[in-house]
Amino acid sequence: MDYSEESIIDAAHPALPGHFPGQPIVPGVVLLEQVLRAATRAGIDAMVNLLPQVKFSEPLLPAQPFTIRLRSDRPERWRFECVREGRLIASGLLQAEST
User: Fold this and answer.
1) DSSP assignments along 42-75, one per residue
2) Which residues contact 57 (CB under 8 A, 6 or more apart)?
3) What is the rounded distance in angstroms from the CA atom of residue 36 to the CA atom of residue 30?
């Protein structure tokens, strides 16, 4: 399964004012929240309960558009990438609860 969607974090997001004053960047947890929401929209109906690997490569500024890409490499696991202007800003794994 492959899935891709465009996303953007609004400059008015409530997590931005202390991260960092005068020069805000999107906190990693906000970026991961967008990835998990994209997974839901992609139809991943299993309960994602692990992020065993996450790497933040470059900062994301508020209101910068980026693309979320999801790719399943096993039925219970998906690789994700967040890309801005052709540059990788974050990547990692989402893992669903085993049944």
Assistant:
1) TT--S-EEEEEEEEE-S---TT--EEEEEEEEET
2) 87, 88, 89, 90, 91
3) 10
Q: Residue 98: its pLDDT value, please?
A: 61
Closest CA to 33 of 17, 43, 48: 48
User: Number of folded domains in the chain?
Assistant: 1
Q: In whole angstroms, what is the distance from residue 9 CA to residue 60 CA?
A: 9
What pTM does this model have?
Answer: 0.91
* 17 found inside a domain: no
Q: Is residue 18 part of a domain?
A: no
CATH number of the domain where residue 51 is located: 3.10.129.10
